[in-house]
Write a structure and sequence with these properties.
This protein is mainly beta. It is built from 3 helices and 12 strands; from the N terminus they run E-E-E-E-H-E-H-E-E-E-E-H-E-E-E. The protein has a 7-stranded antiparallel sheet. A 3-stranded antiparallel sheet has the order 11-10-12, with no helix packed on it. The longest helix has 9 residues. The structure holds fe (iii) ion. The site of fe (iii) ion (FE) has 8 residues, from loops.
């Protein structure tokens, strides 16, 4: 029997992930970001790995502090909450304003809001992964925060209709959008407003043209206003 060599990038989109807020603190600076690539790698010692983009401020803080916290998001977490951590940079805004956190033993602010459990990790080793670094470390604290189901990456995309930032390890480089007229794209996060789908979570019925959206409508993913959208023609 012969072996057929193929490379379908779509196959990688079938990998299952969760969705986490990874936070870190170092010398008075704190930040947090969304990560999907986190996993337990050992039972004894209890150890996990997380994969972070080298350009992210959180990466810098984890590198320096040698520690991080990870909150496991609930399926109930709303898109704007995820967008705040996933699409805004902590270099411009304080992502923690109005967010329920508590101080962790590692110095990271642990996000309690919309989370079902948390871990705190002391980093033992880093592995270079091209654009990203995989930080591996021992779990030094962990706890349950609330009832609920963990948000899966598939649920985020399929049910919450979330999008993936360019900085994520799972970003799809060559998007192929369905050909439809008058879709608009958020320049901040990449969310695409599709008039045929509307924005039911914000009370916008399917069939509503972008031009007819209320003036105070904002991107359901990152909270940007209408002026941050551009028409896409593909
Ligand atoms: Fe957006």
């Amino acid at each position: 029997m012969g072996v057929t060599s193929t490379l379908q990038p779509e196959a990688l989109q079938k990998i299952g992930y969760g969705l986490y807020v990874v936070t870190s603190g170092h010398e008075g600076h704190v930040n947090g970001q969304i990560a999907n690539a986190l996993m337990q790698v050992c039972a004894d010692p209890l150890a996990v790995a997380v994969c972070l983009n080298k350009q992210n401020l959180t990466h810098e803080l984890v590198s320096r502090s040698r520690s991080f916290a990870a909150s496991i998001l609930s399926e109930e977490a709303p898109l704007p909450f995820i967008g705040r951590f996933g699409f805004r940079t902590g270099r411009d805004i304080d992502k923690f304003t109005g967010v329920d956190v508590f101080p962790g033993v590692t110095g990271a602010p642990v996000v309690r809001q919309h989370a079902i459990a948390y871990l705190e990790v002391e980093v033992d080793r880093d592995m270079d992964a091209w654009t990203h670094t995989i930080f591996v470390g021992r779990v030094v604290a962990a706890g349950i925060l609330s009832d609920g189901h963990p948000m899966s990456y598939a649920y985020y995309h399929d049910v919450k209709r979330g999008v993936t930032p360019r900085s994520a390890p799972t970003y799809v480089v060559h998007h192929k959008e369905e050909s439809t007229v008058s879709k608009y794209k958020c320049k901040v996060c990449g969310y695409i407003y599709d008039p045929s789908a509307g924005d039911p979570d914000s009370g916008v019925a399917p069939g509503t043209a972008f031009e007819d959206l209320p003036g105070d409508w904002v991107c359901p993913v990152c909270g940007a206003d209408k002026s941050e959208f551009e028409k896409i023609d593909d």
